[in-house]
UniProtKB/TrEMBL annotation:
Domain Arrestin C-terminal-like: 332-475
Region named Disordered: 176-217
Organism field: Saccharomyces cerevisiae (strain RM11-1a) (Baker's yeast)
The organism's taxonomic lineage, starting at the top: Eukaryota, Fungi, Dikarya, Ascomycota, Saccharomycotina
Top-level taxonomic group: Eukaryota
A GO CC annotation given for this chain: cytosol
Single GO term (MF): ubiquitin protein ligase binding
Gene Ontology BP, a term: ubiquitin-dependent endocytosis
Protein name as annotated: Arrestin C-terminal-like domain-containing protein
Length: 586
């Protein structure tokens, strides 16, 4: 589904040579569902949301790295052709609405030093503020092999200014190297590593354009290099997501919110004469020293990995919509009375909800022709100028044909309606922060009748609209879109017509099958993270030995009949025999 890794270098190395160093590179999320963070409850009900995982690297041949960084980015995208009504200039027939910006970003500067990520709220604005505070500009700059910016001067090569730059570059390229343990490591190997004052002051003016990293804030190792030997490495990462984090929207044709990880191994190739590392035999991990004036680097080795992340939200167990029955009815004077209802306003995606229709005719010669139902999806999006674009579409339509003859008495009709089970065809109800994207649903019911007047049939039509709240339940099968990444820039592409199953490791809901008809009880059951056990399956309610009656067992193996219980009760009033277990026969 995902590309294994994206390999590139600035030193002329081929991808095949870099794969000889790294045989496996992946981003793993700590979640019961693969590459999915499932949030239960609305932002008002939650505090911060934990996100954690591991960066898994299998090193085939040892490699020297400057740092291993990780970034999680959420992007909001608008792209559609708008006709007329939202345009300020009505003389034009149509216009292209196109906008793309960051709405969320979390950054881990170096997982070899710290597993804690920094959440930047506000996307591009927060990033621009951070870059401007670093005190440097990226214009007219080049990068040396150690990541330090060199300002290109228009002076000649023999000028004193250029000679000073050359000396500064040569000095900064000498670094200490820290050796990681043999056969890999699990955890953060150099937790709490800090730079010295000189390195920290020099790194504060450094900006790496190739990896788009920020200035060093937690000892990202700009004054160190790290030698990763052959073995398997699991580098943990963690952060806390804000409760109002936007959920993934991938099914709307005109707008989307997508999240992706980008992991970067910022490697270095050393001169062979400088590969002499001395490890202290008694010191802890990271207690290393180098001979001479440090390491000299000559080429960069940049290895990238991208991973698609879905952030989905489900309802809390006490949401009132689960117990809210929706009913719409009316009376046509001297003709009929009708009522249309669904048992719960909250309906999980991929389930089937029963639609009950009751018709009370007041006169003869009325017959039911057919019932048409359509699921209407309304969505609205807001751009950076606070302009709102909205539309609605019919996601699914079904027709029930009926031949009941003339209606002479009350008529009850049950019409099950199945909700689509893939997030490309339908999008869950949501109202994202600042009304960035809002999605709502309603079930439109049309009851077509025929009334005979003077030997001719005239059409009667009843329209009813039932509001529905569609939510995601991990207990029902569901599909999402197949995602592919561009190996070089990490751009997300959806493969047309292909879907992938979600929630593969979910706990099975007892007694529920795909397409089961729901009521308010089963709807609330589907919102539970895991169904509770039945009472007879519980192991926490056994009698304690000190509280048991004489001769009683904590668990009755057989249940005596009523006649046996009467005989045992009248046998003796002084000696207590085996106590009959309680039996509820209703």
């Amino acid at each position: 589904m995902f590309s294994l890794s994206s390999l590139s270098s600035s030193g002329g190395h081929s991808e095949q040579k870099e794969r000889e160093r790294i045989s496996y590179f992946d981003i793993r999320i700590n979640s019961p569902y693969k590459d999915i963070i499932l949030i239960q409850g609305s932002p008002l009900e939650l505090s911060s949301i934990p996100l954690s995982g591991n960066l898994v690297i299998s090193v085939k041949n040892e490699i020297v790295v400057k740092k291993i960084s990780l970034r999680l980015v959420g992007r909001f995208k608008l792209e559609f052709l708008q006709v007329g009504r939202y345009k300020k200039n009505s003389s034009s027939l149509a216009s292209l609405v196109k906008e793309k910006r960051k709405i969320f970003e979390c950054y881990w500067d170096n997982l070899l030093v710290s597993s804690k990520g920094d959440v930047l709220v506000g996307g591009e604005n927060a990033e621009n503020q951070h870059n401007s505070s670093s005190g440097c500009s990226t214009s007219n700059q080049d990068m040396d092999t150690s990541g330090n910016a060199i300002f290109l001067s228009k002076r000649s090569l023999s000028s004193p200014v250029f000679n000073k730059i050359i000396r500064r570059k040569t000095h900064s390229s000498h670094r200490k190297i820290l050796e990681l343990p043999e056969n890999g490591v699990t955890g953060t190997p150099f937790e709490g590593l800090r730079e010295n004052a000189r390195s920290r002051s020099s790194s504060s003016n450094t900006l790496n354009n190739n990896s788009h990293s920020y200035s060093n804030r937690d000892g990202s190792g700009s004054s160190y290099l790290f030698l990763m030997k052959r073995g398997n490495y699991e580098l943990p990462f963690n952060t806390m997501l804000p409760p109002e984090v936007c959920e993934t929207i991938e099914g709307l044709q005109s707008g989307s919110i997508l999240y992706s990880f980008e992991a970067i191994i910022d490697g270095r190739q050393l001169w062979d004469t400088d590969l002499s590392v001395h490890t202290s035999p008694h010191g802890p991990i990271g207690s290393t020293s180098t001979s001479g004036n440090g390491m000299r680097t000559k080429n960069k080795i940049i290895i990238k990995k991208f991973k698609y992340l879905r952030i989905l939200r489900t309802l809390s167990m006490d949401n009132l919509a689960m117990q809210e029955e929706i009913s719409v009815g009316n009376t046509w004077r001297d003709k009929l009375q009708y009522e249309t209802s669904i048992p719960s306003r909250a309906v999980p995606i991929g389930s089937t909800t029963p639609v009950k229709i009751k018709i009370f005719p007041f006169e003869k010669n009325i017959r039911l022709d057919r019932i048409e139902m359509a699921l209407i999806q309304y969505y609205a999006m807001k751009d950076s100028s606070a302009q709102i674009y909205d539309d609605e579409i019919a996601v699914m339509k079904i027709t029930h044909l009926a031949d009941f003859g003339p209606l002479t008495d009350k008529l009850d009709v049950d019409c099950p309606f199945t909700i689509p089970d893939n997030l490309k065809q339908i999008t869950q109800d949501c109202c994202l922060q600042d009304n960035l994207i809002r999605v709502m649903h309603k079930l439109q019911v049309r009851i077509l009748l025929q009334r005979q007047v003077d030997g001719e049939y005239k059409n009667l039509e009843i329209k009813a609209q039932l509001p529905m709240l569609l939510f995601i339940s991990p207990h029902l099968p569901m599909k999402g879109r197949l995602v592919l990444f561009d190996k070089h820039d990490g751009k997300i592409h959806f493969r047309p017509g292909e879907l992938v199953p979600l929630f593969l490791t979910t706990y099975p809901a007892q007694g529920l099958t795909p397409g089961v008809e729901l009521n308010s009880t089963t709807t609330a059951h589907l919102a539970l993270p895991q169904p509770p056990p039945n009472y007879h399956e519980s192991t926490n309610d056994h009698l304690m030995p000190a509280l048991q009656p004489l001769g009683a067992d904590s668990v009755a193996l057989t249940v005596p009949s009523y006649e046996q219980a009467q005989a045992q009760a009248s046998a003796s009033s002084y000696v207590t025999g085996s106590v009959p277990a309680y039996c509820d026969d209703d």
